[in-house]
Amino acid sequence: MENPETEIETVIEMLTEGDEHQQATALDQYFTEDAAFIHPFYRVRGHPESRESIQKVYQWCQLIYPNVAVEIHSTALDEEHLKLYVTMSHTFAFWFLLFHSGPVVLTTVLNLQKDSLKDPNKPLYYITQQEDFYQTSEFVKFVVPRFGDLFVISAQLLATWFCMATVCVCWPFIRTTSGVNSKVKGQGGTAVVDDDNDNDDDDDDAKLLDN
What we know:
Blueprint: H1 4-17, H2 20-30, E1 31-38, E2 43-44, H3 50-64, E3 69-78, E4 83-92, E5 102-115, E6 124-134, H4 136-143, H5 148-169, H6 171-186, H7 195-210
Helix pairs in contact: 1-2, 2-3, 4-5
Transmembrane segments: 92-112, 150-174
Domain SigF-like NTF2-like: 1-167
Pfam families: NTF2_SigF
């Protein structure tokens, strides 16, 4: 890729919506031979033939939910650390669940390798690792398609309510503990030694000895 921020959308579409030939082309052109792939449910370690393993994962995903529509929301290139951040959503439908489709939002982090040997003015970028990040309420849709996200959101709200209630009940203890910690920090200063006074004392001692 000459411009990862603009070209990555085409690469993702080839991998997720393309046929076997398009997937292989995208992997051969834009991924290194030992590229790694990390997903909440899948993991391909980097090795000389890892691109073929990554393609098998994408083919499996197409088998489970063949109708996938991907939409790229934003891309950001970290040139210093050679990372490309892609926020996207894809709508999938399981073939064994009629009349169901689930939109899932994720952030993909792509580690890049920069190649400037052919043309230093137009370096090429290759993907060395793809890592997909999902919120819990998003990736649970793969496991429990219809009500999984509602269950997770309800559990998160319940946990938040429990935190707030616990703080209200334990507030006197928390306030006392915070006050003690503040006092300890206040007494933990470092002493400043006055070198001038020490030198004066040493001079006075020397005069007494001379007398």
